[in-house]
Specification:
The chain is α+β, with helices and mostly antiparallel strands. The chain contains five helices and ten strands, in the order αβαββαβαββββαββ. It has a four-stranded mixed β-sheet with strand order 3-4-10-9. It has a four-stranded antiparallel β-sheet with strand order 5-6-7-8, with no helix packed on it. The radius of gyration is 19 Å and the shape is globular. The two termini are 25 Å apart. 16% of the residues are buried.
Length: 208
């Protein structure tokens, strides 16, 4: 997200809890010659204190769902509100938890892709498995990456993580409780109307 903003001449600050991800962002910014447009901060969005305010905050790619309890989601929203100018905009997107989206969240192993790797004869395959707990609105997800070299030797990387999904009615009280007025909820990046069957919720809220 930072690089397209920087290319458009917008100074942007990226906050991440992962020093490794910040390192990757720093390298990409340097390779693109855009590092002077970007500030990277190693911090927790639930407790951050950046000492400045912004007109716009973006939480992209389901990142909001990585706050895996209602309390942590509220803490993050409260901190974001403190870092927005009066009338500033919060924009974020999360998956819409309709039944079809969660129907395979029963622990089954699902093949995502198989791709040729950078070395001749190498292949990378990804699988994932997920389980849903409707009582807590959480998903336990594990990604499995199998990297096979040209000799058939396989190295597996296992990446587990958790997500908490939110519903549209929940957002109607969660955001106002944290200092925001909802301006619109869209059903996708094409800004179509949100419907129960929409795959995503794209939320635009203003600091009240």
């Amino acid at each position: 997200m930072l690089l397209p903003l920087a290319r458009a001449g917008i100074r942007a600050t990226g906050v991440d809890l992962s020093s490794a991800m910040l390192g990757r962002a720093r390298v990409r910014a340097q390779q693109a010659g855009l590092e002077r447009w970007i500030t990277l901060v190693h911090d927790d969005a639930r407790r951050m204190e950046l000492g400045t305010r912004f007109p716009l905050v973006i939480i992209a790619l389901n990142t909001f769902m990585h706050f895996t309890s209602r309390e942590s989601q509220q803490a993050a929203l409260g901190r974001i509100a403190r870092h927005l100018v009066p009338g500033g905009i919060l924009a974020f997107e999360v998956c819409n938890p309709h039944p079809d989206l969660l129907e395979d969240a029963d622990g089954r192993l699902i093949h995502d892709f198989t791709r040729h790797g950078p070395d001749e004869g190498s292949v990378t395959t990804r699988f994932h498995s997920q389980r849903v707990d409707p009582a807590t609105q959480t998903l336990d997800i594990t990604f499995f990456y199998d990297e096979a070299d040209r000799h058939g030797v396989i190295r597996r990387t296992v990446a587990p993580f958790g997500l908490r999904y939110v519903t549209a009615p929940e957002l109607e009280w969660l955001l106002p409780a944290c200092g925001f007025a909802i301006e619109n909820v869209y059903g996708g990046f094409d800004l179509t109307d949100y419907r129960a069957e929409s795959s995503r919720m794209v939320v635009v809220a203003r600091r009240s």
